[in-house]
Structures are given as C-alpha cells and as structure tokens.
C-alpha cells in the first residue's frame, strides 16, 4: 500500500464500489456520487485495514449504507425512473440479459438486493456477507433464499429461465 490509502483503495476497488452502487441505485450518476463520497470519506478519515479484503468489505459496506440512505430520501422517492441512456453508460460490459436481471435485482427490497449482489456479483460467501452487513449467518442465508425466490418469480414473469447456483 502506498502513502495515500484512499488513492490505493480507489485504484484497486473503485470499479467494484461503482458497480455495487449502480446495482443498488440503478442510476449511474447517483452511483458515481456515492462512490466519490465513499472514497472522500476514506481520504478525510483514514482507516486501518487488516488486509485488502477487509478494505474492500469496508468500502462495500460504506457504499451500501449510502445507497440505503439515498433510497430512503424523499428526493429519490419522488424522482422519475432511470433514464435508459444513463444505464447504458455503465452497462456496456454487461449483456442485455445481464442488464434485465440486474434491473430485476434492483427492484427487490434492499435487504434482498444487497445480499444477492454481494453473493453473485462480488462472490462473497454467506459468512463474509454476514460480516460485511453485521448480520447473523442464518439471517443472511434466509435473506438469500427469500431473495432468490422473489427474483425467480420476477424473472419468470418476464420469461426468463432462472438457474440458481
């Protein structure tokens, strides 16, 4: 790690935090703002991390918390749906099917979408997710199971064949 932990963290995990924020907000501009806030906080209040994985977990937890705050804000509840052109700027690396699945995940309640995102997109284990979210492992397993069922129902409505891992 170099002398500037925020710069190191941004170079190593900036894209991951941006993807997480975008997956949770569905809005590229908001995801950029949240990403910027996370790294500015780290710069203003440097943290001590045991490892890069610990740093990544802290960054993702910070981004998820900011997404929750954004979802709860009156400004977002009264806002119009996502502009398709904004979504396309980040989603170029995803296929159309991936984007539709991501949009279905985004529509789930936050308690399910965050667990599904961390499990499937960031490849965290249930134990790691429990640690990141500060929840019991059994709670995370239940949220993951219920989230899968809700996602399956939504995807089947849209004509997708849903496979679990």
Task: Walk me through what this model shows.
The protein has 165 residues and is mostly helical. It folds into 2 domains: 1-93, no CATH class; 95-165, Winged helix-like DNA-binding domain superfamily/Winged helix DNA-binding domain (Arc Repressor Mutant, subunit A). 75% of the residues lie in helices and 0% in strands. It is built from 9 helices and no strands. The relative contact order is 0.11. The model is unreliable at 76-80 and 82-93 (pLDDT under 50).
Give the SSE layout.
Elements: H1 5-25, H2 28-44, H3 52-72, H4 74-77, H5 84-90, H6 96-107, H7 110-121, H8 126-133, H9 137-157
Summarize the structure.
By secondary structure, the chain is an all-alpha fold. It is built from nine helices and no strands. 75% of the residues lie in helices and 0% in strands.
Share of residues in helices = over 70%
Q: By helix and strand content, what is the structural category?
A: mainly alpha
Mean pLDDT: 80
Radius of gyration: 16 Å
Order of helices and strands: HHHHHHHHH
Q: What is the terminal-to-terminal distance?
A: 35 Å
**What summary fits the major beta sheet?**
none
The tally of strands reads 0
Based on Cα principal axes, name the global outline. globular
Strand content: under 5%
Number of helical runs? 9
Q: Low-confidence segments, ≥5 residues, pLDDT <50?
A: 76-80, 82-93
How many separate domains make up the residues?
2
């Amino acid at each position: 790690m170099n002398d500037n932990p925020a710069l190191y963290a941004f170079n190593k995990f900036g894209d991951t935090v941006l993807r997480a924020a975008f997956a949770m907000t569905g809005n590229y501009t908001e995801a950029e703002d949240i990403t910027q806030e996370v790294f500015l906080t780290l710069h203003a209040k440097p943290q001590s991390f045991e490892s890069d994985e610990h740093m990544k977990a802290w960054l993702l937890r910070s981004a998820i918390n900011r997404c929750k705050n954004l979802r709860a804000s009156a400004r977002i509840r009264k806002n119009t749906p996502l502009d398709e052109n904004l979504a396309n700027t980040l989603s170029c690396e995803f296929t159309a099917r991936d984007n539709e699945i991501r949009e279905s995940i985004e529509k789930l309640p936050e308690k399910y979408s965050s667990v599904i995102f961390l499990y499937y997109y960031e490849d965290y284990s249930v134990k790691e997710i429990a640690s990141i979210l500060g929840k019991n492992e059994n709670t995370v397993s239940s949220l993951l199971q219920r989230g899968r069922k809700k996602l399956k129902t939504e995807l089947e409505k849209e004509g997708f064949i849903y496979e679990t891992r």
